[in-house]
From TrEMBL:
GO terms for molecular function: DNA binding; transposase activity. Belongs to the transposase mutator family. NCBIfam families: transpos_IS256. Required for the transposition of the insertion element. InterPro entries: Transposase_mutator (IPR001207). Pfam families: Transposase_mut. This is IS256 family transposase. It comes from the Bacteria. Coiled coil: none annotated.
Length: 453
């Protein structure tokens, strides 16, 4: 199947079961019982008996070539097409004043076979034709070669980290479909429009905390190189994670770049951010001060710890982590300074770079020490971020590298939808949010509730 077969099919209501029941009641015929989905219980029992018979014979197959579901799908689609043609001819006859086919009205004119890729496997249906060529089936538009549900399956598999080649192989193995990487790419390109809407959707008026983090992907721009993709993750006023957006960068972005990103977020409705947490983005605090002057910029403590461990031997990491804990759990700056001095006295002879990391980040780290314990937990606990980054990294690494920035953003967006179909990536931040919420409102002089719409 080539890239020209890009149209998809949306199943239509050929003959309403409700109308069939009404007709049966009007004619005095007792309607047959149906399932919750409107299917005849008698039909379901017959299918179950057929499945049991094939199982006993050792040949039961649900999907793919020779499966029960493709055969059922073929019959249902064929019946729907026939019903559409009957309705079309009846409407044309009514418009022509009831004239029959013998007096020049429209009529059936054979069939044309059409192979369709469905979510249960390929099926072949005979599309009815009419003599005047005015029949346009809603079930199978002119160039449609696959169902909308199949497109959704491909988008879901992409979001879960499968490459185009792996999806092609999966469809061939499980469903007996012969497709191509180009077709998979055509399907996933349909996500670009929804991604544009997602990146410009309205946001809440105030967020207690916004984290800005980066993952690195490989993009071919003349030559393959690592490029950062920045993700803004907010904690909402009701204690959930929300993904605000994705932005590509070159690395080492300046204040102008960050002011553009933050202005975009502000223009989407964000009036205030109480705290913004980041790691080593030197030009970001300046941009934050221009957009939200009252926002506190805080260095991510988890990143400080992680960066410290890069300089330590694996055999010492557990002990170093224990010795660093008194620094970031200190009650105030003075105590934290004493604990860092003690750490340096013990470890600087072997790992002098670790103390240097904390010294260089001290001014952005200090605000953390003035926070109440409930807010410290919100700012420090990054499980919701790490789980998201892990999903993003799997999706990116599966591809090796991307041809351009748009392809990278598309794949990460689909990974976001795999977490949450709304694209917000909602996940409860912690189980003690109410305490933190009250502390935020007191510490930041009521800005959290005053700015909520």
């Amino acid at each position: 199947m080539g890239t020209t077969t890009g149209h998809t099919i949306g199943l239509v209501d050929g003959v309403s079961l409700a109308r069939a029941d009404e007709a049966a009641e009007g004619s005095g015929v007792k309607s047959m019982p149906v399932s919750e989905n409107g299917l005849s219980v008698e039909l379901l029992e017959e299918l179950a008996a057929l499945a049991a018979e094939k199982t006993a014979a050792g040949g039961l197959r649900l999907m793919g070539e020779g499966g029960i579901l493709p055969e059922l799908a073929q019959h249902l689609m064929q019946a729907a097409l026939e019903a559409e043609m009957d309705l079309h001819l009846a409407e044309e006859s009514a418009r022509a004043g009831g004239r029959g086919s013998r007096s020049g009205g429209n009529m059936r004119n054979g069939y044309r076979a059409k192979k369709v890729m469905t979510e249960v496997g390929p099926v072949v249906v005979n599309v009815p034709r009419d003599r005047l060529g005015t029949f346009r089936p809603g079930l199978l538009p002119k160039y449609a070669r696959r169902t909308g549900a199949l497109d959704e399956m491909v988008l879901s598999l992409t979001g879960k980290g499968l490459t185009s080649g792996e999806i092609v192989a999966h469809l061939a193995e499980v469903y007996g479909m012969a497709t191509s990487k180009e077709t998979v790419s055509t399907i996933t390109d349909k996500a670009l429009e929804s991604m544009a809407e997602w990146r410009t959707r309205p946001l809440d008026s105030v967020y207690p905390v916004v984290f800005i983090d980066a993952i690195h992907v490989r993009i071919r721009d003349g030559q393959v190189a690592n490029r950062p993709v920045y993700v803004a993750i907010a904690v909402t006023a009701d204690g959930y994670r929300e993904i605000l957006g994705l932005w590509t960068g070159q690395g080492g972005e300046g204040a102008k770049y960050w002011q553009t990103v933050l202005t975009e977020i502000r223009n989407r409705g964000v009036k205030d951010v109480l705290m913004l947490v980041c790691d080593g983005l030197t030009a970001l605090p300046e941009a934050v001060g221009a957009i939200w002057p009252q926002t506190v910029v805080q260095t991510c403590v988890v990143h400080l710890i992680r960066n410290s461990m890069r300089y330590a031997s694996r055999r010492d990491t557990a002990e170093i982590a224990r010795d660093l804990k008194p620094v970031y759990t200190a009650v105030d700056e003075a105590q934290a300074r004493r604990r860092l001095t003690e750490f340096g006295e013990k470890w600087d002879s072997r790992y002098p770079s670790i103390s240097g990391i904390w010294e260089r980040s001290w001014n952005e780290f200090v605000p953390f020490l003035s926070l109440p314990p409930a807010i410290r937990q919100v700012v420090y606990t990054t499980n919701a971020i790490e789980s998201l980054n892990a999903r993003y990294r799997r999706a990116a690494q599966a591809c090796g590298h991307f041809p351009n920035e748009t392809a990278a953003l598309k794949r990460l967006y689909l990974a976001t939808l795999a977490l949450d179909p709304t694209g917000r990536g909602r996940q409860r931040w912690n189980n003690r949010w109410k305490a933190a919420l009250n502390e935020f409102d007191v510490l930041f002089d009521g800005r959290l509730t005053a700015n909520q719409v």
